[in-house]
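TICKET: design request
STATUS: open
ATTACHED STRUCTURE:
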């Protein structure tokens, strides 16, 4: 039998899991100024291009069967299903290797890697690590070893920058060195998940692999390759295509600046929404009081508007200067990109934690339809930018604005789906307008009395005080007053 973690409370599992993710991402964010002063935008752009290529094949490698590992009642059935996923991943990875062996030079020329064609071999290696860590991670979730999983995330988050920085200091900073550091982090996480699975008794359960049982489990959970795998391909396809397009049409340096700017704008928001999404879903799934759930949603949305809008107003004006000081002089392009990416990042704060409500209300089909429609719209935006031959900044601005508009439309549809009235939507809009007007007035006053440098300092101080005051009031709100 698999060894399960002690029967800890759900909240403790949740907190431990969130802490691992938060700390690992904070580590990456803290060392970012050092990384950007050692490696140039091209080096980082090459890694993200290779990651986009390997991630494209990931749903095909697992057929998303790894998501079903937690479902079988029998550990033996789950373990055999996992081994089936491992076999599938190996077959797809070998297929990618064969394709590269035949078409290395043409592929390198297409993606602007003619001078670094040998780095293309990183794609199948990265694919193997991604498939391994995701597959065995499902077994860790099944056996509830969230504490070990959190520790592993933190260790992998440390290994990635540590290897890249140390090798660069002892040799020379290059794209190959940065890619080596990123691969080291992936390898650490992948091998760590295997070791945790071994500790939980996985290999004892699967002393004898049954191909008949593997095929039976594949057939039983055929919904994953039939529906979930195509949805996964569609869900991230546009982002991967946009990433690849930036590298092909402009430069790998532009791609690197875009990904770093995206990391800067999304990381603070992800730290908030990661926990919020899981907590809201766990509460909504266990509660039959839909009215109270809607009250919680309304309270959270009003709170987000009140807290976030001032940061958006100040960030849109000051963020390029802040990013330039944070990253270094070679990353001015990232500062320009961050201004527009801030709009998209802000819109995700209103939406990413609400997506599981479609599962709660049994409206997954509507969710898929909305995803497909949004993907089609974004592909059209990318095609128009390509046809008009827009420069990088304009292309990223158009893409970000389109993403933000799609998120806001999605939010309205979602709120109507859960049964929230139009009256609240008007209230939310009025609250946002009031806070935005107040923020613009304060911003204008700061610009009038201070230089750009001191304006950035004063503006940041005001935002910090505002966030502290708001957070203090937020924590004092009684649960039964959420709807107010």
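STATUS: resolved
RESOLUTION: sequence designed for all positions
ATTACHED SEQUENCE:
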């Amino acid at each position: 039998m698999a060894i399960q973690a002690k029967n800890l409370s759900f909240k403790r599992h949740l907190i431990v899991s969130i802490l691992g993710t938060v700390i690992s991402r904070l580590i990456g964010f803290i060392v970012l100024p050092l990384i950007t002063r050692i490696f140039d935008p091209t080096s980082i752009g090459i890694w993200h291009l290779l990651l986009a290529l390997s991630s494209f094949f990931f749903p095909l490698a697992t057929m998303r069967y790894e998501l079903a590992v937690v479902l079988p009642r029998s550990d033996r059935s789950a373990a055999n299903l996992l081994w089936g996923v491992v076999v599938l991943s190996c077959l797809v990875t070998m297929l990618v290797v064969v394709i590269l062996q035949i078409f290395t030079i043409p592929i390198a020329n297409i993606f602007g890697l003619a001078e670094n064609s040998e780095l293309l071999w990183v794609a199948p290696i990265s694919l193997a690590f991604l498939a391994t860590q995701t597959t065995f991670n499902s077994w860790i979730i099944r056996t509830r070893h969230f504490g070990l999983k959190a520790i592993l995330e933190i260790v992998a988050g440390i290994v990635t920058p540590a290897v890249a920085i140390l090798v660069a200091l002892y040799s020379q900073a290059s794209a190959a060195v940065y890619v080596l550091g990123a691969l080291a982090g992936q390898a650490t996480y992948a091998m760590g998940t295997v070791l945790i699975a071994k500790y939980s008794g996985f290999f004892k359960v699967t002393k004898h692999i049954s191909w008949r049982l593997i095929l039976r489990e594949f057939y039983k959970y055929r919904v994953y390759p039939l529906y979930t795998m195509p949805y996964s391909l569609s869900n991230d396809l546009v982002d991967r295509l946009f990433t690849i397009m930036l590298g092909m049409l402009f430069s790998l340096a532009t791609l690197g600046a875009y990904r770093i700017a995206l990391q800067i704008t999304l990381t603070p928001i992800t730290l908030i929404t990661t926990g919020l999404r899981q907590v809201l879903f766990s509460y909504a799934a266990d509660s039959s009081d839909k009215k109270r759930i809607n009250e919680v949603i309304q309270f959270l949305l009003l709170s987000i508007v009140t807290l976030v809008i001032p940061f958006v107003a100040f960030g849109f004006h000051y963020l390029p200067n802040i990013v330039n000081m944070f990253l270094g002089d070679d990353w001015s392009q990232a500062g320009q990109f961050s201004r527009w990416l801030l709009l998209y990042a802000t819109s995700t704060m209103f939406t990413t934690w609400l997506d599981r409500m479609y599962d709660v209300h049994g409206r997954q089909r509507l969710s898929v339809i909305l995803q497909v429609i949004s993907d089609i719209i974004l592909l059209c935006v990318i095609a128009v930018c390509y046809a008009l031959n827009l420069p990088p900044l304009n292309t990223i601005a158009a893409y970000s604005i389109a993403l933000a508009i799609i998120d806001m439309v999605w939010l309205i549809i979602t709120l109507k789906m859960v049964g929230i009235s139009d009256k609240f939507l008007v209230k939310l809009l009025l609250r946002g307008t009031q806070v935005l007007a107040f923020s613009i007035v304060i911003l204008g006053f700061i610009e009038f009395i201070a230089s750009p440098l001191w304006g950035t300092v004063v503006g940041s101080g005001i935002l910090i005080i505002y966030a502290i005051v708001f957070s203090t009031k937020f924590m004092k709100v009684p649960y039964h007053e959420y709807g107010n």
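CLOSING REMARK: The chain has two domains: 1-249, 268-484. Residues 478-484 have pLDDT under 50 and may be disordered.
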